[in-house]
Specification:
Elements lengths: L3 E5 L3 H11 L5 E4 L8 H4 L12 H18 L7 E10 L16 E2 L4 H6 L9 E10 L1 H14 L3 E3 L14 E6 L5 H4 L5 E11 L8 E4 L5 E5 L4 E4 L3 E2 L7 H15 L8 E10 L4 E6 L5 E6 L9 H19 L2
Parallel strand pairs: 1-2, 1-7, 2-6, 3-9, 7-15
Antiparallel strand pairs: 3-5, 4-5, 8-11, 8-12, 8-13, 9-10, 10-11, 14-15
Bound molecules: flavin-adenine dinucleotide.
Length: about 325
Amino acid sequence: MPQSIAIVGAGVSGLTCGILLAERGERVSIFAEETGQHTTSAAAAAIWYPYDAEPAGKVIPWALETYQVFAGLAPDARSGVSMIELRTFSRTGQIQIPEWALPLGARPLAMSSEVETSLMGTSAVFKSGFTLNVPLTDTTLYLDYLATRFQAAGGSIASKMRLEELEAVDPSFGLVINCAGIGARALVPDLDLEPHRGQVVLVPKIDQLSGAIVCDDAPLIYAIPRTNDCLFGGTNEVSEDRRIDAAATERILAECSRVLNIERPAVLAERVGLRPFRRSGIRLEAGKLRDGRTVIHNYGHGGAGFTLSWGCANQVLDIAGNQAGRDRF
Ligand SMILES: Cc1cc2nc3c(=O)[nH]c(=O)nc-3n(C[C@H](O)[C@H](O)[C@H](O)COP(=O)(O)OP(=O)(O)OC[C@H]3O[C@@H](n4cnc5c(N)ncnc54)[C@H](O)[C@@H]3O)c2cc1C
């Protein structure tokens, strides 16, 4: 009889790992304090882009693997995944197109003609940019899609379950997978995790904005059109304060409106999340709990948890498979 697997965490990392294991026939249960729209994952802009995560040598292959899975999901409207043109800009000088983006079709933008069109008339703000087609996951749909797919494969989700330590997972589970995001700081504990606080503002759809725009020279801004709204960002600071900062909302609205050359839109909602940045890099490895059970850690994805989700979950599956071969968890 195979032993059961417990996953701690119901954000994008836990749900994606859950799907891969449950669809392979394993008995999997997710335990999480927060689920769905209450997780950090729900606050994400959730556009595919390797940002604020280390180390690059691992991040880029995981990101490229995830890109392919998202591209495969995009034709299914129920998934909430679509392909979108992303225009990345610099305010300060000539932008460097990253090496990994070239095989995906990235190319420089002709600033005068193309940017005038994409920014509705205010190209003066930016000096240069490049364009690239990337997956966008609409978190209002995608997290539900993942949860539904996981449950359809036989997985179960127990919410409002706060664990004080990983050993508190019921002993009937032979393997524990730790996808606790910033929660791993206290749960493991792991003080190498640093909360990179991010705030976004949801506004009504902007008809003229067909693609996403990003500029991460200060002040960081992005405007991302989604199925039912438009997401404006953003902030990135070391803080664990999950309260909404009204001044940050004002700054985000002012800068996005200036760049897009629009009137200040109405605010539909504001969201705050803590990007789980790990200074020494994403932790994706097996270890042992004090009671001898195997744990596979999968946390510390910083500002790229969606971008890396399928690549990392595949690696969790590989580790679990090897482990199972060795000692059946
Ligand atoms: C403003 C903002 C914008 C972002 N934009 C993007 C983007 O464009 N693209 C991208 O790829 N990424 C983006 N990110 C990053 C992304 O959101 C994260 O990397 C990702 O959500 C991490 O997912 P996770 O599943 O590891 O953690 P989380 O979503 O935080 O989930 C952790 C889970 O573990 C549970 N948990 C934690 N501790 C405990 C405990 N002690 N007991 C029980 N359960 C526990 C939580 O309740 C939750 O269910 C953004 C983040 C923010 C904040």
